[in-house]
Design a protein that fits this description.
The structure is a homopentamer. The first copy, chain A, has one helix and five strands. The first copy, chain A, is mainly beta. Chain A has a single domain, classed as EutN/Ccml (OB fold (Dihydrolipoamide Acetyltransferase, E2P), Beta Barrel). In chain A, a hairpin with a 5-residue loop joins strand 2 and strand 3. The longest helix of chain A is centred in the C-terminal third of the chain and has 7 residues. The two termini of chain A are 22 Å apart. Chains in contact: A-B, A-D, B-C, C-E, D-E. At the D-E interface, strand 4, helix 1 and strand 5 of D face strand 1, strand 3 and helix 1 of E. Strand 1 of chain B pairs antiparallel with strand 5 of chain C, so a sheet runs across the interface.
């Protein structure tokens, strides 16, 4: 899984019914320290994420279909969690 | 999922019947601001996309097979939507 | 899917019976303009492709297994078509 | 599979029940000599790995679901082993 | 599929029984001319490969599970063949 920050929303004319009522979000990929790495993903929202929030993304079709509870959805990337904290520890202290 | 712009069409002698009657499009990958990132994909068209249009692509086999309603198709990349707008918001404003 | 040019053949002692009688080809990845991008794939031939030909490759296991009509084959990359032409259009002209 | 070093833990509000009670770890990718390559993964812990430990990660959904003994989990990356040693040999000596 | 050279072995405490008795090899990725490209994979050995040998690797879970004849194994990368020769041809001569 990877980390990202929600940057906006994509509006797309998609005929496939599995997308009806789903928000399609633009997510910039970030490093664990919060800096952007230059990449992005277009991901379906499953947690009601807002712009500026750090999120956890699963980029795998079967995971996405499971989260959306739809075994047939043509979706690969889904936001599965809002990140509350990333705790970086020193070796030996945790 | 990723964003791209349709650049042209690939004509290929493919014997597999799942490709009969399908347009195979050349899509340049783009960043959310519309600039090209130098990569491309060859994707099957599922939305009647035209050259110059910004599209949403799913690059995963099971998604592609689902969109084409063919559980056996040897296809990985499919254009699932035409992008109408990409709205980039400021944090806290959406 | 991606584009490549067949460069040669790999001879390998593979015990798995699904490879018996299959040509394993070395394919250099190319950009749509025909220039090589520095990468390569080792792909199973399904269309009797020859050296120097531009081909269309699907790099996904379930697609490869479907092309080879073998649901159990341990194969990820398969050449599914010989490219006859890549037509790059100007926006608005197609 | 790839190698990494556990760097910390991600705390995320995930509603999907398959994540309940699972530690989500931040793992920096490393080269076989132990140096970091600049990338990272967010992986679910299946071996009670601690910060500073070198681990083996499988980055594939069906593997992750199998390790967690849950065929429906929306998880792609899982830590499957703690690395005790990486033995680099000279050709002909093993 | 991709090419690599076996460099060594990884010793890891993995509780999953599918790894019992399996050698986990360190494989440096190579280009078709034999030069290393800087990347590596950790792959399960299925062909009794030795250090220094050039091998063919399938990096896909369902392939790996098929080679190991275990539909449940949490394994993505497997060495499926030892490469005897890579024949690079000139266009038109094969």
């Amino acid at each position: 899984m990877i980390l990202g920050v929600v940057k906006g929303q994509v509006y797309s004319t998609i005929n496939h019914p599995d997308y009806d009522g789903r928000r399609i979000l633009l997510v910039d990929r970030i490093r664990p320290d919060g800096s952007e790495d230059g990449g992005y993903l277009i991901a379906v929202d499953a947690v009601d994420a807002g712009v500026g929030q750090t999120v956890l993304i699963v980029d795998e079709g079967n995971s996405a279909r499971q989260v959306l509870e739809n075994p047939d959805a043509p979706i690969r990337s889904v936001i599965i969690g809002i990140v509350d904290a990333i705790e970086v520890s020193q070796a030996g202290t945790s």
